[in-house]
């Protein structure tokens, strides 16, 4: 019953996804630019890719062309859509398609090929050349902007992509204009105003310019009326970011009137009315409706107030709860082993050199298979096999029966031992999960009964950070994750984790490792204890996912300058001061490859002012090929850690050709001294 429900839900989701893509592709066809083309629908169709979703978008684009476009423009539109879908289907599954610019370039190329034919055959090719090139560019831009929404996971759905899709969809309704006021452009103006108020003047100006530019292209005017109005008004409204909405709306209208004052065209009058009408809409819209996920506001604290012991215990409880949750995620590898492997391995040892091998395993394979299958329940129940477990036609024909039975018993013993080991490992994993959950509940209960005990404040040294990261050649996602943060105790932590393999799966594994370890450290758990806990949990989790990660952690007490470097299978760390470079390595395996007790390699040192600490992944350099990096660090005379991180990444690409994911994180302690907190 549950399987049927899951199947029905999956079919419903597929149907809804296809229906949404069909509707959007059809509706976007109504958003036409000068020349009568609909580039946004073509870009959306390209972003949908191949498969059922792409086919639904293709059908929607075709229906939209028949409804909204003229005959010749509709034929060109459908031809481009078919070519784009065909290219997506032809290249499906290739790593080339994972590159961000592949789909936009293919879509633009197909558009240029089809539109170019119409330009060449027209009576005035020069007049149609500009709309052709404009359509080509907009198709590529649309495909690039829509791709994160249609192909990525939840974390790939960027607000900018959603804004672009919303604006282009609203442009399809720009011709709905009762009283000369376009409803589509009015909502676009409200969206620009809201973005400016929420994100500031620069974001408001940028959003206003590109949204206004698209509105001008669809309106077909000769002057950039909406570009000027939305861009200037968005910048002005952004000056009141986070403050009174009424004052932001007033600045918006004043700036729009100023920008549109020289305009005498009818579009200018309409733009003023639409900008004014956008203000009441803006005042009525709830902030969370267009603001995406709510951001947790930081609690204001007095300068001397630091988190209490209760808060630390609550954070530790949350960290253990997340660690418990992580052990139930990810694709679970099948723990069951087919008993047929016992016969396969025994036959490999005994039957390969037998004179009757072809007879038993080729000509009479069916009879042999049935004989072994019939004997399986007896040998699994007894723990060993006997000649009577096999049918007479098999045992009488086998000329090496004693040797075959002996080989089966040896392999059966190994099979049963492996099965017992897996069962015990699963029991251990479940016990550990339960312990993490109980420990989380215990810490949470203890925290609830504690009074606030503020921690002390002190004087901390200054620092600067730099980081650079680049995925393996041919991959979109980088399997390395970098993190840097400062705990409430004044402990600066730099984290670098390299997930097994490369691509999105490696990125998820390394990101989970960094997130969980960060939670432990921010909760006040000692670094070595947190790493030992993580290693044990990841080893148990690896039994179900088969994955592991390296961990490179640098901690620095900002009050004393005492530092420690912890390594689980990580690449070397380099400490540079003036012309001297110290190289720190470790021999511990990556976290998750060995159960406790398997602590990390620990190196303790003191970082003086004007020191650099450089953390890298093995894709940038490893212990067997890092002379170039030591020479680069020894000769570096700058003080900007970001410049150094970028330089190391560029040189690593030259040295290794991006054969693996590359991550670099740099810490610099300037000579200015200390800061009081």
UniProtKB/TrEMBL annotation:
Positions of the PPM-type phosphatase domain: 462-669
Assigned keywords, A-Z: Membrane, Transmembrane, Transmembrane helix
Record flagged with keyword Transmembrane: yes
Stretches that traverse the bilayer: 20-43, 50-69, 75-94
Keyword match Transmembrane helix: yes
Protein name per Swiss-Prot or TrEMBL: PPM-type phosphatase domain-containing protein
Source organism (scientific name): bioreactor metagenome
